[in-house]
Every structure is written in C-alpha cells, then in structure tokens.
Design a protein that fits this description.
CATH class of the largest domain: Mainly Alpha
Order of helices and strands: EHEHEEEEEHEEHEHEHHHHHHHHHHHHHH
Strand content: 5-15%
Structural class: alpha+beta
Largest sheet: 7 strands, mixed
Radius of gyration: 27 Å
CATH topology of the largest domain: Hypothetical protein af1432
Distance between the termini: 72 Å
Helix content: 40-55%
Number of helices: 19
Number of strands: 11
CATH architecture of the largest domain: Orthogonal Bundle
Number of domains: 4
C-alpha cells in the first residue's frame, strides 16, 4: 500500500500558490483494508475515505470507463492492481495529473515541492512542463468522456492568469460540443462550475473559453448573443455589448464582489441581445427584457434565490440608479422602495455595487468614482433614521387610518431626503 498527494494541492504548490486542501490517492489497497485501518467511508460511486484524524480525503486508485452520455455515465474500477499512473491518466488536465509520494512529505499543510527529490514527483503526462509554459492541456482522451471538464478548463483559465488552452484541447472541446455532450450536463453541475468561475480573478476568461469552443451557445445562449450588439459610444466607448459584459465581470472581481453581485452583473444587460435592429444602438426598454430572459436562466440552472432576486432588481433598476442624481426627493424615495432597500438595506448595497461594476466596466472609465452609490447609500441611511414608530404612534393617537399613517411616514422620509 502506497499513498500519494494528488490533484490541486500538487498543482498549486508547484505554482507557488497557497495549499489549503489536500487530496490523497492510495495504491495497492482495498476498501476492507482502509476500513480496518480506521478510515471512514464517504464515497457513493467509488471508494473514498476520510482519514480518522485529519479528515482529509483518501481515494483508492481507480480507472473509469464511459457507459452513457453525460456526467453520471461512468463505470469505475478500483482494485489493488491499479497503478498511480493509471489513476492520473483519467484526470482532466496535465497540471492536475501530478502526484507526490507521501513518504517525502511532512505533516505541514504548506510545503515546497520544488526541493523534493526527483523520484518523489510522479509526472507521466508532462504537467510540470505545462505549468512552466502556462498551458491547459488535456491529459488523455479520457477527457472527452466527461463534459463537465469543458467548464473546468474554462474556470481554470479564469483562475490562472496568462494560461491558455492548448490547441488540441480546444479542438477536442469543440468536438465534444458538436457531439452534444454539453447538452447532457445536469443543471446543478453547470451552475456549480459557472458560480466558481464567476468568483475567480478573471471571470471574463471563462466566458471567452466557453465561446471559443461553442459551449456558451449551448449553456447560455442569452449571454452569447450579446457579442456584436452595438451600444451608444457616448455611454459605452467599448461599443460591443459582449465586450462591455466582460469588463463588468472583471470589475466585479476587482472589487471582490460576492457571488450574487457577480451573477447580477452577468445577466443585467441580457435584453440588449433582443433589441430590434432598426433601433440600434439604442436599447429602450432593455431592462424589462433582461428580467424576462434572466428568470428562465435561473429556473433552468436552479440558481439560488439570493442570486436571482438581486439580479432582478439590478436588471430592472440599474438605469434608474445610474441617473438617480436627476431625481427629486419623492422620486428617490420611490426608487428605494422599488428596490426594497428600506426592508433589505444590506441587499441594496449589493445592488449599488453591481451598478458600480456596470458603470466602471467601460472603456476608459474603470477608475471613475461611482457617485450614485455614494448618494443613494446616504439617502438610505437618512430614510432609515426616520422615527417611523413615533410617527405611527402619533398618527394613531390622532385617530388616523392605516393608509394615512403610511402617507405620514412617506412624507417624513421624503422631507428628510430634501436635504440630500
């Protein structure tokens, strides 16, 4: 029985990145032997165990064979005679197909693999060379058996700046898309990978790779159709809506926005893709069309409610928020109420952050201060300071009805906004 550190921990250590999670591969063992040694079983499809002390995952070396379309159509083979090289061959990319013999490692979760003896690193598919050359290259033709790997490649492109997809790998991904493999992906896995990609340092790279191989047209045709759609140059110097979208996503990453904000950024302008040709480059009414397009996406991919609800508000109101300096006190209050800002102030701050990403995700405007966010955040604080309980109590004492109490509170809120 021999144990190897595998996968992302090895990859990131070789890149000089922090290692947070470690996965292990066990060669020459059996499920019963692992149980006898005190490991806890957790794998449903194949033998995976948790170390009794560290709780890190230990999987038996295995091979796999495609038996049906999609993500679940696999048959696994895990016996003591499966070698580490065979296990590495089934992995997606060469940079993920490197192992380090555990005999050479310390107990520390951070280590320098560059100082290990040469025979400690098992790299039969050239992963270290591809790290040096910044290439995302498939390990073997086993890659094409799992369409989720297309999304993973795109996500890694978003994570590792400067890495490009090797031409043979891109060609293989295109063939997989053409063969309909992407159509068989389950919604949960698609959303999981897109969500992770949105949270990477350069999310635009994920969508660029998906476009290159044709997968974006299958998974998110509403996003794909934004490229080539012109916008008014005085508002969008970059002109192309797809280019603008990518700048918005990268601005969200630069501002370290949470996932709901990044998803809202992704879908806020979908309606521009359905603007009639004869009115371009204007996009009158694109906000409501964006909502009509994003809701089916949320249903299709089973997007979390938090992400969906924020996206709807941003899509509906981003234009009004951009122009909010033109609004008087009553109109500003109505905008806050439409955004449900008084009831959900923290969510409204996320709405403002998404709008800031939209405003600054434009050519030459990346370093601009987004004044509407400052103004509306201040307006919300003023509105929240209105003593509504006291106003209601006074109105009730005067015998006023419920709707009159509501009007009194609204009047007090509008009055305080006059001083904004």
């Amino acid at each position: 029985m021999k144990t190897y550190l595998v996968g992302g921990a090895v990859r990131d250590a070789l890149m000089g990145r922090a290692v947070t999670d470690r996965d292990w591969c066990v060669v020459g063992s059996s499920p019963q032997e692992m149980l006898d040694a005190g490991y806890l079983p957790v794998g449903k499809d194949f033998p995976v165990f948790l170390h009794p002390k560290t709780k890190e995952e230990y999987a038996l070396a295995r091979t796999e064979r495609k038996t049906a379309p999609g993500y679940h159509g696999f048959e696994f083979h895990a016996t003591p005679d499966v070698t580490i090289e065979q296990d590495l061959a089934r992995r997606d990319l060469t940079i993920n197909s490197i192992a380090v013999c555990a005999d050479f490692l310390t107990a520390s979760s951070r280590f320098d693999l560059k100082n290990l003896p040469q025979d400690a690193v098992i790299d039969p598919y050239g992963g270290q060379k591809d790290i040096q050359e910044k290439l995302l290259r498939h390990t073997s033709h086993a890659f094409e058996e799992d369409p989720v790997r297309i999304l993973r490649v795109a996500r890694f492109a978003a994570r590792y700046e400067g890495f490009s997809v090797a031409k043979p790998t891109m060609d293989l991904m295109r063939r997989m898309v053409a063969a309909g493999e992407v159509d068989a992906l389950v919604a949960e896995r698609v959303w999981q990978e897109i969500a992770k990609g949105l949270m990477e340092n350069k999310p635009s790279r994920m969508f660029q790779v998906l476009r290159q191989c044709g997968a974006l047209q299958v998974l998110l045709p509403e996003v794909e159709q934004l490229w080539g759609v012109p916008q008014r140059a005085e508002y969008h110097p970059e002109i192309d809506t797809g280019v603008h979208l990518m700048m918005v996503l990268d601005m969200a990453a630069q501002l370290q926005a949470p996932l709901p904000v990044r998803f809202a950024c992704l879908v806020h302008d979908l309606g521009k893709g359905t603007t009639p040709q004869d009115v371009l480059p204007r996009h009158i009414g694109h906000e409501i069309r964006s909502v009509d397009l994003l809701l089916p996406i949320c249903e299709r991919l089973r997007v979390p409610t938090e992400c969906k609800e924020l996206a709807v508000v941003v899509a509906k109101e981003h234009g009004n928020i951009h122009r909010s300096a033109e609004l008087d006190a009553k109109a500003t209050l109505r905008l806050l109420e439409r955004c449900d800002a008084i009831r959900k102030p923290q969510r409204f701050l996320q709405v403002l952050q998404a709008c800031e990403c939209d405003a600054r995700g434009r050519l030459g405007l990346q370093d601009e201060i987004y004044m509407p966010a400052l103004r509306l955040a201040s307006a919300l604080q003023k509105v929240l300071s209105v003593p509504t309980a006291e106003i209601a109590q006074q109105a009730m004492a005067e015998g006023k009805r419920t709707e009159q109490i509501g009007r009194a509170i609204a009047a007090a809120r509008a009055q305080i906004l006059e001083k904004l």
